[in-house]
């Protein structure tokens, strides 16, 4: 849909539409009618076309990740710009865009650093669920509703800051490309950017969901010769092997800790390990699975609120490296459009990660698929 064809009669007006609201944790999302305010200065209002369901959304729903409620969740989206506020220069109505939780203001310490990508205007690590001016653009039943990470994609229309909106190729397939807003770059970038996997290396991936599967694709693209996939759901093993996993392990099938199994399989430990689950136990297991002298362990999973990572510091003294990775270390406005270009040129495989597509109104079924481990990535279509 180009700019000329995009309706403009809603610009500057409140839009009433449907959204899935999390009124409280440990309860299904509720499809409600909401009012979405026009964008203010530096903001963009977007018609959402597709949205992935990410594990972090599920962590909010089950209460392990704390964010202000009620809220409209969702942070992996693709859409079309409906209208823009003042001083918005990078996108215009009719543009196809990705909706990304991590901004790139291009002005803060992190954005100005060559490697930094954790923009200081993020609302991820201590979320307040509000726009930068301290207000929200969503109202339901006369009550103000928070956003999620400045994104909120579980709604037909959302408002975001320009610094979190990424213009993409006009020919990009909107029903699939949303996964490039979070799941794919988070995993793929953890392998090629953060871990910097080397040809001929041995890698271990803890968790074979959407992000873990993207890690596998990144390890394979980087030339890893052995990729060990670890998951308690053996239903994921066939798909994992198609992505490039050479060995599949279910920790419940062993009487010893899985890190000991990995050490025995690899003799000295893996060159690279990746944790894409989000529990303290699997993070420690990932660290202890990599080579004591030169192994690199990358943490991607989101741990429960207020948890603490505890391990023997001698594990690092010997030479191991423990790293974290956020959206694969990509500077979102600079790098994600290039990733979309690679997708369009079929240089990277994104579509195979999508195992289910559902209409937006079946969002709770999508979460059930995620919780049951029956899907790699479920996409909601609006």
Keywords summarizing the entry:
single chain, 382 residues, alpha/beta, seven-stranded mixed sheet, six-stranded parallel sheet
What does this structure look like?
By secondary structure, this protein is an alpha/beta fold. It has helices spanning 55-61, 109-112, 183-195, 210-221, 237-243, 258-266, 280-289, 314-317, 332-344, 363-372; strands at 15-22, 30-36, 43-52, 71-72, 76-84, 96-100, 138-140, 143-145, 157-161, 165-167, 202-206, 226-230, 247-249, 272-275, 296-299, 321-324, 356-359, 378-381. The strands form 3 sheets. Strands 3, 5, 6, 9, 10, 17 and 18 form a 7-stranded mixed β-sheet that branches. A 6-stranded parallel β-sheet has the order 13-12-11-14-15-16, with helices on both faces. A 5-stranded antiparallel β-sheet has the order 4-1-2-7-8, with no helix packed on it. Helix 3 packs across helix 4 and helix 6 (258-266) packs parallel to helix 7 (280-289). It is globular, with a radius of gyration of 20 Å. It starts with 14 loop residues before the first strand and ends with a strand.
């Amino acid at each position: 849909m180009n700019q000329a064809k995009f309706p403009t009669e809603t610009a500057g007006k409140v839009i009433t539409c449907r959204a899935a609201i999390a009124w409280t944790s440990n309860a299904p999302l509720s499809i409600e009618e909401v009012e979405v305010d026009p964008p203010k200065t530096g903001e963009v209002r977007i018609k959402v076309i597709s949205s992935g369901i990410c594990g972090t959304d599920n962590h909010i729903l089950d209460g392990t990740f704390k964010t202000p409620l009620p809220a409209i969740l969702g942070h992996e989206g693709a859409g079309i710009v409906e209208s823009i506020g003042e001083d918005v220069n990078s996108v215009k109505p009719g543009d196809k865009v990705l909706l990304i939780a991590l901004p790139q203001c291009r002005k803060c310490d992190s954005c100005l650093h060559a490697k930094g990508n954790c923009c200081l205007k993020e609302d991820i690590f201590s979320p307040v669920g509000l726009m930068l001016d301290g207000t929200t653009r969503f109202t339901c039943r006369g009550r103000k509703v928070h956003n999620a990470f400045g994104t909120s994609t579980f709604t037909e229309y959302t408002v975001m800051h320009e610094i979190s909106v990424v213009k993409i190729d006009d020919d990009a397939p909107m029903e699939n490309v949303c996964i490039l807003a979070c799941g794919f770059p988070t995993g793929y970038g953890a392998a090629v950017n953060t871990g910097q996997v080397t040809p001929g290396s041995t890698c271990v991936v803890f968790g074979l969901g959407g992000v873990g599967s993207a890690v596998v694709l990144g390890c394979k693209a980087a030339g890893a010769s052995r990729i060990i996939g670890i998951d308690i759901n053996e239903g994921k093993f066939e798909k994992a092997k198609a992505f490039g996993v050479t060995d599949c392990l279910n920790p419940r099938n062993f009487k010893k800790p899985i890190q000991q199994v990995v050490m025995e399989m690899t003799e000295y430990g893996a060159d690279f390990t990746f944790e894409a689950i989000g529990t303290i136990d699997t993070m420690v297991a990932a660290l202890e699975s990599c080579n004591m002298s030169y192994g690199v362990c990358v943490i991607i999973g989101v741990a429960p609120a207020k948890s603490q990572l505890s391990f023997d510091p001698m594990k690092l003294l010997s030479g191991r490296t423990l790293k974290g990775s956020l959206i694969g270390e990509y500077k979102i406005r600079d790098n994600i459009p290039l990733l979309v270009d690679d997708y369009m040129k079929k240089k990277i495989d994104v579509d195979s990660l999508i195992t289910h597509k559902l209409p937006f109104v079946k969002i709770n079924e999508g979460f059930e698929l995620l919780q049951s481990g029956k899907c790699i990535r479920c996409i909601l279509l609006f």
